[in-house]
Structures are given as C-alpha cells and as structure tokens.
Amino acid sequence: MITPATTSDYPAIIDLWELSVRTTHHFLPDDYRQEIKTLLPGVLPHVTIYTWRDTANVIKGFAGVADNKMEMLFIHPESRGQGIGRLLTEYCIHTLNADLVDVNEQNEQAVLFYKKMGYEQIGRLEFDGLGRPFPLLQLKYKRE
C-alpha cells in the first residue's frame, strides 16, 4: 500500500536508503555515502515522500517527489524484484504527474529499470547534485 510519509517515518526511511544504496551504488565511496546520509534529514522535508508498506506496516520502499520530478526511489534490498519500485514509479507518474527523474549513470540496474518503465534520456550531467563526478542521466517518461 502506498501512503504519504510523516516526519516520524524519517529514521526508517534513512535506514532503508542506506541499505538500498549499499546494495545498488557500489561506485560511491563509503565516506561519500555517509556524507549524503548526514544531509538526508535536511533534504527529506523538501520532497514529498510516499512509502510502500507491507502488511506489518514496515516500509519496504519509498519515492520522493518535488514538482513534476521523482527525486528519489529506494527499495529495501530484500524486497527488490517484487514490483514495489514499479508500483511507486507508476504512482509518481500517473497520480502525481512526476514524469522526470535523474539516475546515476553508473547505476546500470536503475538505468535499465527506468528504460523498461518507459523513460527516455533527455540529458546528461557530468556531476551529481553535490558537484561530485558521478554523472546523472536526465530521463523523462514517454507518455503514449
């Protein structure tokens, strides 16, 4: 079930983010991951977070949206491949009109996921949002 997150969900969201990034972002050095983690409490209030929870009400995935852009999508490593990312992405596209997303070019699984979902590359940035040399692909959902 997809529901809006509350600030009381932030610790669980940050923990899930860290587990997910350790599994999918092998190209990021540990110190940089930790730097990003310390910034998350200040970032999360600036995006609207939607969570997918299991029947025990445990957050297994989340997406963050600002304007018409999905700013983040992270799935618990043990829940990958179960359709949670697809459900959250479809919710962002069709319910929230968030048809833009940036993805780390080096996160090949995520790039393939978004392309399978119907996104097309519309740009490329040499540096990530913190100015580090981790290129971002700018994607837009192709509406049919």
Topology record:
Blueprint: E1 2-4, H1 10-24, H2 30-43, E2 48-53, E3 59-66, E4 69-75, H3 84-94, E5 100-104, H4 108-117, E6 119-125, E7 136-141
Parallel strand pairs: 4-5
Antiparallel strand pairs: 1-2, 2-3, 3-4, 5-7, 6-7
Please describe what this structure looks like.
With about 140 residues, the protein is of the alpha+beta class. It has one domain: Gcn5-related N-acetyltransferase (GNAT) (Aminopeptidase), CATH 3.40.630.30. The chain contains four helices and seven strands. Helix 3 links the parallel strand 4 and strand 5. It is globular, with a radius of gyration of 14 Å.
Q: Which regions contain 5 or more consecutive residues with pLDDT less than 50?
A: none
Secondary-structure element string? EHHEEEHEHEE
Return the CATH class: Alpha Beta
CATH homologous superfamily identity: Gcn5-related N-acetyltransferase (GNAT)
Instruction: Kindly identify the CATH topology.
Output: Aminopeptidase
Mean pLDDT rating:
95
